Amino acid sequence: MLFNSIAFLLFFPVVFILYWLVFSRNVRLQNIFIILSSYFFYGWWSWKLLLLLIAVTIISYLSGLALAVFKYRNKQVWILRFAVFINIGILFLFKYYDFFIVNFVSAFQSIGINLNINPLYLMLPIGISFYIFQSLGYTIDVYNKKISPSKDLISFFAFISFFPQLLSGPIGRGNHLLPQFLSKRIFIYTEAVDGLRQILWGLFKKIVIADNCAILVNGIFENYNDVPASTLLLGAFFFTIQIYGDFSGYSDIAIGCAKLLGVQLGDNFNYPYFSRDIAEFWRKWHISLTTWFRDYVYIPLGGNRCTKIKVIRNTFIVFLVSGLWHGANWTFIVWGGYHAMLFLPLLVLNKKHRFHEIIADKSFFPSCSELRQMLVTFILVMFGWIIFRSNTILDAWGYIRNMCSYKTLFVTPVFPGIPIDILFLIILFSVIVFMFVQEWLNRKGKHGLDLHVVSQWRRFLLYTCILMLIFYYSSSVPTSFIYFQF
Description:
Elements: H1 6-21, H2 27-43, H3 49-69, H4 73-109, H5 128-143, H6 153-161, H7 163-166, H8 178-182, H9 189-222, H10 229-260, H11 278-284, H12 287-298, H13 308-326, H14 330-348, H15 368-389, H16 393-403, H17 422-441, H18 456-473
């Protein structure tokens, strides 16, 4: 079930009303209803995939209990290894088996050896990367004694399956999200209102920004050999905006829905395109995944507490694995390596922590230096998104090579086979500028509509305009979110 679908528009109000009016008497009833609602939400895609979600949940729950029962560390190590092996094994089977088999067979064919090994062509379960990592994080935290194992099966099932963040995060942590399912939720009006604002902003970024950018992006990337460099530059720019609007829009809707149900999810985006270097960008982009890799991969490898060479090694491992997490394609791995290379100068010069304060914290406009840093970072990230969006490494190279062609860089852009006109481009650029202006004005808040000093009639006018745009651009066939494929 998509957040931007009619089905969800009908589903969520029913859940909200029943949750607070019927099932709010005690926490157990609330959790049972959360589980049933979440399974209905996930089963909307395929009821068969629920079996996998249930299996992962049970394995993680039992692993946590086993870590509490067996006190000896050597036995706990084997329990942790078993849990990691099962979870990663499931993820590998559904997401990576075919990729590695195809490349393995191709490598042997290149030296004249034919192997009779066929891919499985299994359907990739939606959200598997997210709930597997959430389950793994819980087990590792129990092993490291950061949290106590959950003995309440109902609350644990609710923790893993919570539908707002089930498909694309934010990835929940046991020490933050699980305690909320162990205590009764209370309706807080101000939180609910803020949740509605965040949902509205998320729908705006998805339906008005991302989906309209996608019309251009898909056509340009499919025909990159047939259009001038000016068009390719626009395609790269629009995909940079599309993936932000799409993914941060999903996160805003998820966090907003959770607030309406009395649950606080962690932040997942913090205005990443206002970053002044690549390190700051990764502290602001997909925060739940970045911190997951930091805590469960980077720090166990030694983190910063080792020689410079090993710090660089650890950084490259994290970025390459992060790239592979996004999908079974060499483009994602190269994309991860590209960002590791961008990180390298900051590591060598010990500058990766130089920007922590909010940009232009004490002024309205950024300084010339900050503006230049933001622009350079944006361009570097945009080049990375070309690799990320391309189907193959050769496509990525061809796109970048053609885009850097000086001869056609300043000619009028053309969009063959794409049903757009100049008015479409003007409106699209206008709403993109509006999004950035609105987020700049609220950069100290949690989201673009985190309004505090705006008068009531201005809020009403702003909400009305955004709603009109959302309804105007809404489609009877809603588009999926990009990160569903991960």
